[in-house]
Amino acid sequence: MDKFEKNLEREVTAMRECYRSGKTKQESWRRSQLKGLQTFLKEKEVEIFRVLKQDLGKHYVEAFRDEVGLLRKSLNLALKDLKKWMSSREVKLPIIALLSSAELVPEPLGLILVISTWNFPFVLSLEPLIGAIAAGNGVVLKPSELAPACSSLLVNFLPNYLDSEAIKVIEGGPAVGEQLLQQKWDKIFFTGSARVGRMIMSAAAKHLTPATLELGGKCPAVLDSLSWSWDKEVAVNRIIGAKYGSCAGQVCISVDYLLVEKTFSSTVVELMKVLIKKMYGDNPRESHSVARIINKHHFLRLKNLLTDQMVKDSIVYGGSMDEDSLFIEPTILVDPPLQSTIMTEEIFGPLLPIITLDKIEDSIDFINSRPKPLAIYAFTHNEVLRKRMVSETSSGSVVFNDAIIQFVADTIPFGGIGESGFGKYHGKFSFDTFSHYKAIARRSFLTDFWFRFPPWNNYKLELLETSYNYDYFGVLLVILGLKKSRRRFDIN
Amino acid sequence: MASEVEKKAVFNAESAKDVVKQLRDSFVAGKTKSYEWRRTQLKAMLKMMEENEPQIVAALRDDLSKPELESSIYEVAMLKNSCRLALKELKHWMMPEKAKTSLTTFPSSAEIVSEPLGVVLVISAWNYPLLLSLDPVVGAIAAGNAIVLKPSEIAPATASLLVKLVANYLDSSCIKVVEGAVPETSALLEQKWDKIFYTGNGRVARIVMAAAAKHLTPVVLELGGKSPVIVDSSINLQVATRRIIAGKWGCNNGQACISPDYIITTKDYALKLVDSFKCELERFYGKNPLESKDLSRIVNSNHFARLSKLLDEDNVSSKIIHGGERDKTNLMITPTILLDVPQDSLIMNEEIFGPLLPIITVDKVEDSFDVINSSGTKPLAAYLFTNNKKLKEKFVATVSAGGLVVNDTTVHLAEHTLPFGGVGDSGMGAYHGIFTFDAFSHKKPVLYRSFAGDAFLRYPPYTKDKLRLLQALLAGSILGIIRALLGWS
């Protein structure tokens, strides 16, 4: 560990020298790196699909939809808008600031540490990397050791496509993570659990390093009683797609649990059974369209969620698990006890509890009595309910009539609140997250307000006050001696 | 007697917990969310300033010997402006912002809704005890939060006044002031807040952030640093000198986070600059600055001792070329200029925060950038006086700081359209104007999707055709989509 630490320090120092040389600030450098990422994704696509299958059992279409395709889209956007993002923004000043001008200039922060996680090993590593590069920073990326084939691919091949003086990929587990956290970074971008998020922020505090923490939570879906069968089918498809169709529910923005009205619940369950069969066939494991659980530890964690007798009794569909292949079939539960672990901890797996309520409006209190999630999904036509959802609950984001799709929308920020984290990214928000918007004010020597300077007297005080108020007429009155001071107290 | 004993009751973790619980109940009950509540509070704060200016000026005189004009303008007037701006813009700030949507989520619409964070903690500093306490509070109110304010105990008269005024003018079920020092602050920091806004120094900032980490609480840290001033030749020397003096000694006698900390100029220009300073300083503060009523005193004996130590260091005391007079009883140090102190001296390695101005000389003015960047830390502000366009461009491109000003000092603080905050060691986050509102808001994206137009290709069973369509869809290319649909790609 000592040798690693020494090497690391040397590497970081070298990276800082490189950053100081100004290389990463150049638009041409940023473009070349983004293009390098494009080439990596193109040339290594087959490899990427292979390692995602190996680590997570992801089908290559799912891998494209959720990882490679997304990254390609982000890179296109970054390359298209880079110049615009890099340009400074003029800021309006009031008339009294004669012959002055002001602007906001985005500049890189310096060296960024990106720590990503195992469920979307490519997108969660490279999406922040895209933003950091576009903003002109040097970057160290530590992918998750829990997806080892993916991590190896990144360590061994990514540097061939990028400037390894300024961008490095370092493999390892918690020990390596800890060593990295001892170094001084200009920003840390972390995706993972709240428990580790706390450790990251504590470490960042030692160097006053700002952080973005993308954590998780129990994202609820609220399914109102829909009358049209088309709507019902679309809603249920989207829910089961979000739950079972993306990394087998091991997603921070998965539908963790579902809230429905008691009277609607059996319709929902029956419809779900039909649509799950349609998507995954009679034998979901053979369909190869449901990802695997990442490892034995998480498999056992999920298995344990179902050991409680009352929880077991609430299973209405699925429930079968195979430890050898780390496979859990799409499972539905109805009304497991609210204090059971499956209802108090983030599930992160293909188990969907459905909680029934008397009225759908009760979902608001239900959600509010729990920590703020990364997203809230509500399937409803009811305008009043929609408005209440938005104004009476708090979450990273709100999506109506769909789930998970907000990840794809790069015109809205993606991030959490409260226990689900802070900071945001995607699209231009990634660029902003890794930039410092430096305020520049320029003044002329020609105009000066003599009343800015001591020695002080009441006259100067009145002039300053009217000026600060942008009360131009008032200024005139003071100068003409027509404005009486309202002050009664002595100047000193 | 009995009521005095009650007042002295210890504010510990239990008390802090109670305060937070009370505020959280108020927040959850929705008290702070309405437009009307926010407006009433902001109006009350404005009234509070208007009706109590003499008391405020007196408290600031007690705490800092602050000249009345500085109190009236840099504290009261600035705060009133913040309130007025918030009142004028509140409706607009509270409105959701429409966001564009792209082809990949078609059909959909999106907006970004500003919602309050909840219960927030504002910890302020002693040098502008009114402004730095209430300016963040204005934004926190505008954003609809419940607030605890902890003013600095190093400015006790202002802190007590704030307790009284806030209790009398603002809604005390939602906004509270807690007085105290380290124990009380620690008790507050143990609680869970939805945001902590801290103004002060780097040492305490680390403690605040570490405490915040336990609850995953986001923070804004407004710190300081050594704000350098680069002075080029062939400028309007008199105006430049005046502006530097106004920013340095005119701002609480150098005890301000964005005060010019030190000057860098060329060897050739240094003496001309020094002469100009001597001349203008006399014009502003008279022949006997110790007697001048227009300078704040040093806040307390600790800081007086700290500043004296900076001046008394070997190889530094001999470099004093103007001023250096001290009055320990009245805690006064006159405007002091030093020339060419060693780079490794204390005065060049910690934020001065006082009326001492070292001038460092370089051969060519371009060498200044190396001097600034060699410190390895980014200050809250950096200033340049020049008429040379290329130098201005290099300044903006190479000097990283919270904010930069060309041909003036400190004025960017008054401009509410500019975000005010640091970077690196000078802090994180920004505020002023709408940026304060944003700092205390959660910008929640809301995506509205339709049931129509479902992309069946999102779902299994997965096929090569679906893959091709997805590729086209994610690339946002209509032609690609058509081709894929027709089986042509």
TrEMBL record, chain A:
GO terms for biological process: aldehyde metabolic process; response to abscisic acid; response to water deprivation. The lineage of its organism: Eukaryota, Viridiplantae, Streptophyta, Embryophyta, Tracheophyta. The active site is at residues 214, 252. Gene3D superfamilies: Aldehyde Dehydrogenase, Chain A, domain 1, Aldehyde Dehydrogenase, Chain A, domain 2. This is Aldehyde dehydrogenase. GO terms for cellular component: cytoplasm. The gene is LOC111303999. Belongs to the aldehyde dehydrogenase family. Keywords: NAD, Oxidoreductase. Residues 6-440 form the Aldehyde dehydrogenase domain. One of its GO terms (molecular function) is aldehyde dehydrogenase (NAD+) activity. It catalyses: an aldehyde + NAD(+) + H2O = a carboxylate + NADH + 2 H(+). It comes from Durio zibethinus (Durian). The keyword Cytoplasm does not apply.
UniProtKB/TrEMBL annotation, chain B:
The active site is at 222, 257. Residues 11-444 form the Aldehyde dehydrogenase domain. Keywords: NAD, Oxidoreductase. Belongs to the aldehyde dehydrogenase family. One of its GO terms (cellular component) is cytoplasm. InterPro entries: Ald_DH/histidinol_DH, Ald_DH_C, Ald_DH_CS_GLU, Ald_DH_N, Aldehyde_DH_dom, Aldehyde_DH_NAD(P). The keyword Oxidoreductase applies. One of its GO terms (biological process) is aldehyde metabolic process. This is Aldehyde dehydrogenase. PROSITE patterns: ALDEHYDE_DEHYDR_GLU. One of its GO terms (molecular function) is aldehyde dehydrogenase (NAD+) activity. Pfam families: Aldedh. It comes from the Eukaryota. It catalyses: an aldehyde + NAD(+) + H2O = a carboxylate + NADH + 2 H(+).
